[in-house]
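Q: what does this look like with magnesium ion bound?
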Amino acid sequence: MEWETVIGLEIHAQLATKSKIFSGASTAYGAPPNTQACAVDLGFPGVLPVLNKQAVRMAVIFGMAIEAEIAPYSVFARKNYFYPDLPKGYQISQFELPIVGNGHLDIQVNGVSKRIGVTRAHLEEDAGKSLHEDFHGLTGIDLNRAGTPLLEIVSEPDMRSAKEAVAYMKKLHELVRYLKICDGNMQEGSFRCDANVSVRPKGQQEFGTRAEIKNINSFKFVEKAINFEVERQIDILENGGQIVQETRLYDADKDETRSMRSKEEANDYRYFPDPDLLPVIVEESLKQEIKAELPELPEAKKQRFKDQYQQDEETASQLTATMEMADYYERVVKNANCEAKLCTSWVTGTLLGALNKAGLEISDSPIEAERLAGLLQRIADNTISGKIAKQVFEEMWQGNAGADEIIEAKGLKQITDTGAIEVIIDKIIADNPAQVEQYLSGKDKVFGFFVGQVMKATQGKANPGEVNKMLKDKLK
Ligand code: ADP
Ligand code: MG
């Protein structure tokens, strides 16, 4: 039988606020355990939560960026469960009335665009962390993370393959960073995913029973976990079994998912509105204000790069993958004052290649956009050839000198004096009568030999176009 995969993702994005969602404690990552948890985060009796305005603002920014409905009135609810890293015995979240509802995000897979629905996005607080490694037979609790603001973004079950799920997750990751509402650091858990996966016979209307794979924190693992889970479910169904609705864990070492708890064991959270918090009112004026401040979004930027710089889909995607990348590229274009095509090929080719090799991000590039632009200017005005430019690039990478300084110091200027080139050509022709004869008798390939000889004699500094033209003239 042919099976169809159905996937819906719940993504937790940690909002980039300085303080927690209901207290003034810092959200900075990596502090010694329990140094950033105040009485509110610890759930002491008598304390009251106060909502962080910035977190609300960021949720609205997100909602507007995915063209969602922003609830004018939303409510915080208590989600009750017991766990050692949840001191209050409940998590403050949103349930029936989330702040963001009904938006969408477009993904591209194999050149085909597809719209994925976003059901809702709600604000909630993170829990603390249980630490097992350093405590033999015991569990340590670090409550620094307790109360950190999260935006939980819930998709419609619109994805049909692990590839689509990864594309969606990447799009979302790109977007929250563009919006500067989340740092996107997946190693530190700032952006993590629960994947809901089911399969159904191709053509069937109803969805199959799903499993939810919890807390996956890399794109690669999301893809692997889903692929494993799909195989597991198909295997069960083809052997006459049934899928149980359950929560599963992905074990990256073994590349498999394992059951955590089934639906029957699932908690009854007894959600109810939190009496300590007022409803959240989003005024029309806030929406207007945010709309005016919204940056150019990734999709729009990509389209503009395609139109303005004549880039294909793949190149435009690459150059707009982060705001930093796009800004770098546009600074090169602006300062180089040459054809965008030259900028594109140098940024995507030589520069990104070198950064990749060195394991560096664009923001850590040893060559700033302005310096690279200086180099491209010298290619464009024929001061140096593309080949010599690679040499200059290497020098620039090592130090702080500009292209002109290096060209001057190393005497790399292209020889434009045709008289000087002519002398060299005449000598090469005189010294190689056999090759001249071969060429004149129709062996066109020998032409390359002459070009090579001239370039060698000029240490690559002769203008290749000029050399070609002059050689053609002489070898008649
Ligand atoms: P819950 O309340 O248990 O979290 P939701 O209805 O909110 O369940 O759905 C959670 C996520 O699971 C959503 O992203 C949704 O798209 C996805 N989902 C729901 N049903 C299925 C299914 N049959 N197969 C795959 N994903 C599903
Ligand atoms: Mg859920």
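The CA atoms of residues 61 and 294 lie 7 Å apart. The chain has a mean pLDDT of 94.
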